[in-house]
Design a protein that fits this description.
single chain, 521 residues
Length: 521
């Protein structure tokens, strides 16, 4: 490696992590080409078009706005000039089969009042203690873990006081820890759902995932044009700063010369030379040999049992009218433990699944629903068995009937024509994201060491870097963006090139700015 010389870079995959890495590297003057097998950018941030309407069918929530403010500012731009964002007052509306419902807000006092009316004053006090604990967990982990390029137990222990390390509750399950704050099982169910944000079970994940509550309270943002507008913005940002994006370009192998990367090749024989490759693909695809044997040996393989959840989703147009839907809605199952037993132990769709519904034409208070058809995105968790025996159609049909009954009880008239409905299963997700079995979040966060087993941005193969939700710091839109920043910073450091004041991958994980203030309005 010639330190000081600017390397030629190939980025595989135009997901959020790949686009951020491409933009940051191109902005430093590097020669960057992004190769994307799909015809559009975004990766899992995709759209479907049931009945001709564009429906977001990937991530639907934007948090940690400061990540994208820093990306734009680092390139000399302003996020508000690139994207129209509005801060949401409400987080989500939650429904139970007994007819009760509860709105949760970004404002702690407002949420506490709603919880007091829903379940009593003692539960509201439990909520306040829970949010305080979530804040302390986040503040403990923000610098030495979330922003670090490759955290370890050793570095976390070295940079964190023993009392702070104990505070993050790594040895207690999220479900058990919630019992220390809430007696009402419905509230444990509500806040236990944070584990599913990273494709995991609240019964097996550490209480550390409480930090998601703090992230949401710091701001949930609505994106004008839908979440896919964020993918388009990042693609435009990368292009404007010099990266070349090629769509319909499926890489068949990462090539090597000696013990380092030499480029990438395609099935038709085309070869692109490169000094470094940033793989914004699922780590399981690399380990499974989808990019050749050299790349397969660059990362550790993971057992099927470590996969995160998959899903069955429905994108549709429906007549919702006066249905009491907010932007984000959760219809909980009667028995949360049985739901995860069905998925993780019995390897089947749950008999009574929790259903998430995003009403994409509504604002956070439920305003904006048109008298005609509205765009809805519905999701239930599913086992990651997309590369095995497929789910039987009868099983999928039963699940769909359950989802549609829930919608109907809320006053939604579901479509009867196939043209107004698109269904995706674990097998579909496995085809879209090879090597994953349909797992949508990389490795599940089960057990207290799971987060440290997630691969960092550097690999065993010199010149190969990782970005995306299956690499550190994990799944979710802002986390994937942070992985792209960290991959770029690691690459620049390895080549002896300055990376400005990039807080995403400081040596030792030291943060330059506090996440509780950076980019906040």
């Amino acid at each position: 490696m010639a330190r000081g010389r600017k390397p030629r870079v190939v980025v595989i995959g135009a997901g959020v992590g790949g686009l951020v890495a491409a933009a940051e590297l191109a902005g430093r003057g590097l020669d960057v080409v992004v190769l994307e097998r799909s015809l559009t950018p975004g990766g899992k941030m995709r759209q479907a078009d049931p009945g001709g309407a564009k429906v977001d069918v990937g991530p639907t929530v934007l948090t940690m706005r400061w990540v994208f403010d820093e990306i734009a500012q680092g390139l000399g731009e302003d996020l508000d000039s690139l994207l129209t964002l509005s801060k949401s007052e409400a987080i989500a509306r939650h429904f139970w089969s007994d007819g009760n419902r509860l709105d949760l807000f970004a404002d702690i006092d407002r949420s506490a009042d709603a919880i007091a009316a829903f379940a009593g004053r003692s539960e509201a006090e439990g909520y306040r203690s829970f949010t305080d604990r979530a804040r302390r967990i986040y503040e403990t982990l923000e610098a030495p873990f979330i922003r670090a390029s490759r955290p370890s137990l050793m570095t976390l222990a070295r940079e964190t006081a023993l009392t702070d390390l104990w505070r993050i509750s790594p040895f207690v399950s999220l479900w058990r820890a919630l019992g220390q704050h809430f007696r009402d099982p419905r509230l444990r169910q509500l806040f236990g759902r944070y584990a599913t944000y990273c494709g995991s079970s609240p019964f097996s994940s550490p209480a550390t995932l409480m930090l998601v509550a703090h992230v949401e309270q710091c701001g949930v943002w609505l994106v004008q044009g839908g979440m896919y507008a964020l993918a388009e913005m990042l693609a435009g940002l990368a292009t404007r700063h010099g990266a070349i994006l090629r769509y319909g370009a499926e890489v068949s192998a990462i090539t090597t010369s000696g013990r380092r990367v030499s480029g990438v090749s395609f099935q038709d024989g085309e070869h692109i030379e490169a000094d470094v490759v940033v793989a914004n693909a699922d780590v399981a695809a690399l380990a499974g040999g989808h990019f050749g044997t050299a790349a397969a040996g660059a990362v550790a393989p993971a057992a099927r049992s470590t996969r995160s959840l998959s899903a069955v989703t429905w994108a549709l147009q429906a007549e919702a009218g006066d249905a009491p839907l907010a932007r984000h809605n959760v219809f909980f199952s009667r028995d949360y433990a049985a739901e995860f037993t069905d998925i993780l132990r019995r390897d089947r769709l749950p008999a009574d699944p929790t259903v998430y519904v995003c009403a994409q034409d509504r604002d956070d208070a439920g305003r904006g629903g048109a008298p005609g058809r509205e765009r809805l995105f519905c999701l239930v968790n599913a086992p990651p068995r997309g590369d095995g025996p497929p789910l039987e159609q009868a099983e999928i049909d039963r699940c769909q009937q359950h989802v549609f009954r829930i919608l109907a009880r809320s006053g939604v008239r579901v479509p009867t024509s196939r043209e107004a409905l698109q269904v995706s299963t674990p097998a579909d997700f496995h085809r879209l994201f090879p090597g994953t079995g349909g797992a949508l979040y990389g490795r599940a966060s089960h057990g207290w060491t799971a987060s440290f087993r997630r691969p960092g941005n550097r690999t065993r193969l010199s010149g190969l870097y990782l970005a995306g939700g299956s690499a550190h710091p994990g799944p979710g839109v802002p986390m994937a963006a942070l992985s792209g920043r960290s991959a770029a910073a690691s690459l620049l450091a390895d080549w002896g090139l300055s990376s400005r004041s990039n807080p995403a991958a400081m040596p030792g994980g030291t943060s330059m700015r506090s996440a509780t203030t950076a980019g906040r309005p």
